[in-house]
Prior knowledge:
Elements: E1 17-18, E2 23-25, H1 44-52, E3 62-66, E4 74-76, H2 77-95, E5 102-106, H3 112-123, E6 126-129, H4 136-146, E7 150-153, E8 169-171, H5 175-184, H6 192-199, E9 211-216, E10 226-230, H7 231-244, E11 264-267, H8 274-285, E12 289-292, H9 298-308, E13 312-315, H10 317-325, E14 339-342, H11 349-358, E15 363-368, E16 378-379, H12 382-386, E17 394-395, E18 400-404, E19 418-423, E20 430-431, H13 435-441, E21 448-456, E22 462-467, E23 472-474, E24 477-479, H14 481-489, E25 494-504, E26 508-517, H15 525-534, E27 536-537, E28 540-541, E29 550-553, H16 567-575
Parallel strand pairs: 3-12, 5-6, 5-7, 7-8, 11-12, 11-13, 13-14, 14-15, 26-29
Antiparallel strand pairs: 1-2, 2-18, 3-4, 9-10, 10-20, 15-16, 16-17, 18-19, 19-21, 21-22, 23-24, 25-26, 27-28
Amino acid sequence: MDKRNHCPPDVNSINGFCSKTKIFHSLRPRVPLPPLTDHQPLSVTDYGLSLLTTSASAASSTFIIDASSDDDQQLTFSQTLRLAGFLTLRLRARFSLSKGDVAFILVPPSINVPIIYLSLLSLGVVISPANPLSSDSEIAHQVRISNPSIAFATSWTASKLLPKLRLGVVLVDSPEFDSVLTHYSDTGSASFCSSSMPLLSNVNRVCPSDPATILYSSGTTGHVKGVLMTHRNLIALIAGRYHVEPKIDPGPVESELPQPRRRVCLFALPPFHAYGFLMLIMAFVMGETLNIMRRFEFEAMLRAVEKYRATRLLVSPPIVMNLVKSKITNKYDLSSLENAVCGGAPLDRKVSEQFRAKFPHVELMLGYAMTESGSVGSRMMGPYESRRYGSVGRLSENMEAKIVDPVTGEALPPGQKGELWLRGPCIMKGYVGDDKATAETINSDGWLKTGDLCYFDSEGFLFIVDRLKELIKYKAYQVPPAELEHLLQSNPEIADAAVIPYPDDEAGQIPMAFVVRKAGSNITETQVIDFIAKQLNFSLKVAPYKKIRRVAFVDNISKSPAGKILRRHLINLAVSGPKARL
């Protein structure tokens, strides 16, 4: 089906731009959403189960495998639902959890995570997952934001939860918790309708407008904020993906009979991050098999792809760069891979081209989203879009966008750069406890101001230039750090790099590079500076104001779990002492 036929009459069918309203519209088919009024209770769990039960063979199919365990610990869809249901009964009986209670989740990746998520969502409890590796002060800040009544943690993360919560902490590695799952795990392949769904029934009458999650923004340019998403937001996300992406009936893994290719995902994402959390929920609804990694290790990921014949990789940009640059990939059979879905941070077009050259049978599907947009924005679909290197695909289904001049506020046409604004049913309700920040980010017409400098090309492909707040102000010029980072990463002696603004009395700010040398490299500061000065960027020399003027060599670049460079940390490191200390 030609997706361009779905545009309104006044909208350009090639790029989705309306010259009257200056709004870009999605070229994807418009996805109908279920009635999302509070007159009819509907949780995201209800909606997800209604879609999952359309697959007759899903009950006995494998949903999740612990790729880090020696015994291939795994659960079927039916087992996962029944365990989530029995956990729901236990939680209701012991804690009397009510709709709107917040549960803080401080649990490393494991097959228990989706069980906890499904159970709490069915109760109307607001899920607030956090990074178990965060510092005590970071956890304390997130707890202050979310104000949880209960937490789920392990014996080694629970100590970070101070002061004590009203309903205490559930230890998921305790004998008591394990006994619940062990007792009910041997459930066979009972049908969803007769056994699983009643245990996850909407007993608290959860409505679409009720809060579902508090997810945390990356905090790369400011303090971490709690992003509040409703059940309506998550339902819209699921509906969009479910009705646009092809479904594959997940037949038994063990079957040797001819059958459609199963979608087996190697899940190398943190489930506490917005991208990982939402992709985990989507994989469940889409009937996919997930191979989850408790602790990411690059070669372990390659072994898992070979062992489980994974067809899809869910990854962040640093992993893609490793796939391109690492020679150990040749040791493993990766022929089962069909695509790699990448998001969370920008990826240079040269890296995409190198990936295509090294893995010609794998489609690299890039996308753009924010925690605040419900991990929805733009994405690639199909072979044609995957080859639009440098872009992050086209607008996702049911989404609208504007490119706005940061100075004049004027909406701009294709080909012109400005701040990206997004609007659609997945946009967050707001920042928890911060009305001022919410009002500054979402205007009265529902437009989310992303803070990203972007443009759409003549075919509706979105290109990310940089974060507006991260642009380096060199004299009267603006320097995008990402542009210089991509050039630095193309140097064969550089493993990774980040560029920050460094204060300068004359220029205001100068571009400073943090560089990670490749093993065996002795590249110097002068060589790095000269390399950038001589580089060509789209057949034009790098403008003099964009040149690197200061370099520090480090062992690694500080990044968020999604792969975003933590510039605030690097800026603090750069200005906190003499350069010789870096």
